[in-house]
Design brief:
With 242 residues, the chain is of the alpha+beta class. The chain is built from seven helices and seven strands, in the order αβαααβββαβαββα. The chain has a seven-stranded mixed sheet, with helices on both faces. The longest helix is centred in the C-terminal third of the chain and has 49 residues.
Amino acid sequence: MLYASSILKASLGAGSFLKAPMLESRPPGEPAQQPVLVPIRSIGPGERERIARHLLDLDVHDRYLRFGYSASDEQVQRYVDALDFDRDEMFGIYNRRLELIAMAHVAFAPADQPNDCAEFGVSVAKHARGRGYGARLFERAVVTARNEGVGMLFIHALSENAAMLKIARKAGATVVRSGSESEAHLQLPQATFDSRMSEIALDHFAEVDFQLKTRAKQFWSFLASVQEVRSGVRAARDKSAQ
């Protein structure tokens, strides 16, 4: 973990437009504490079910902000089914139950289009907001887009989506309003050795965290099953003793 942190400090330090690495902000009302890295994991095609569950759990207003319209369950499912994991990048933040609580989609241009631009979209579960996850996912997306040779990262958002526009402005993006919609674009510097090492370190850190959460969940499930067996045995003994 220290390895990941040291590389991030070196690569996102002086001269970088990102002011801080992927650090978790404390929820409002909580006492100040030492910031920690937020594990952000690259999502593969095997996670479609988790992605669908996360997006379908968004309420009508949140879907409106994420997609630009009030997407129905069917439309959300079509979006999930059409995700191109070979071309695009998806990133996620998981809780201890391995539920996807925040997700970002970095959409790269198709093969027949100029490949120096990409688009960023993000969604965060309602109960996980106020922790800076949207900003952390944006920073993670910037690292990958930069290393893929992208020179301009776009964010298409509704003008009322203040949280998303705040993230874009804080990163130094130019925001242009057009009626009810806004277009933000952030110019990215060229990839460097440090930026590539940062991505490797971030991926490793997130994968280790995910595996630990997986093992913990399996262990607690095992303990729960043992407890059920013990309860059943006690109930049987009490019944036979009557």
